[in-house]
Task: structure prediction
Amino acid sequence: MKITPILIFLFSISTIFSQETIFKKYDSEILNEVRDISIYLPKNYNKDSISNFPLAIVLDGHKLFDLYVGTSNYYSYQDNAPEQIVVGIDMKNTRTKDAGYNIITSELTPDSKDFYRFIRDEIIPFVEASYKTSPFLTIVGESLTANFITHFLREKYAIFNAYVCLNPSLSDDINTQIESYKLSNLSNEDNTFYFYIAGNPYANDKKLAKIKKFATYMKTVDVDNFNVVYDDFSDSPSSSSLISEGISRAFAKVFEIYSGITKNEFEEKIKNLSPPDAISYLEIKYLDIEFLFGSNIGIRPADVFAIEDIILDKENGDYLDDFGKMILKLFPTSEMGHYYLGKYYESGNDFKKALKQYRLGYGKMNLQDPNADLFYKNIERLLNKEN
Result:
């Protein structure tokens, strides 16, 4: 199903008011003024005492905040992205001052340098100290502020994991600027980075040429953990619709690791793996989800079933033991690990150990679960064999 701006808007209206949005006047020492910020806390923030939540900093918050929150809600509802804490910075009357730069040299103005430090040294530390944030940070900008966020690539140690540049208004030497940042250093970090660029076919020829040139250059950056996506939106029905669709497409890329295993992912990355490599792939996927997004979401049965045939059909099912142990290591409360251990012992005719595993798994299930009766049939089958 295609995610349209209207769908996101309606979803946002139906959900955002059931969550908590804090409107705060932040007294900035760096800017020497009070700034309006909005802080969105997702619905499970106060219900979940264990998880942390990725943080998104949304510039131009006066027009992008609700749109980003709506998209975040939609994707998390579909289990295609984690719930996020979203901070919108109102720039309605200050964006030219906050994000200004020299059109020739790309150099930020003195005011925009202060705004840069305001985000880096005040807003992010404040939110991280006040709320349960995970290490995964996103920054979003549109037009002038989309150019501004590229300057965060200069940091010796990356602050953000994801940069969402919507319809950027770029300086003349943006490519030279980026080249000076030595993005190859990102390869030394045990992390994953995303850079998303949304073009604008309705822009004037000069702006459009800059965006295309910039996108072409960024896609030549050869760093394994730095993922660049450019959408030219040549089929976009209007300039305004590409902003909402751009945020949606950025979500699809930035949080692809969070989503369940797709058909394409299976065909391209898993299908031809050996059983131990398939087990390792699934284990790393869920460890990355927990590390990056602070979410211990429990193993998705569909992801387990996606690699089940590899485990069963290759090498005579000898890796059922490792498969079950991997699931129990990651998710000790799941019954699925015991199920595969039970199958392993049963295939070796060790019915006593198999029965023990099936009983342990059944004991972890909610008896209202429609699969509980099916699971119990494994116990009945082995009890009949014992008799």
Notes: The first strand starts at residue 20 and ends at 28. The CA atoms of residues 260 and 303 lie 6 Å apart. The radius of gyration is 24 Å. Residues 110-130 form the longest helix (21 residues).
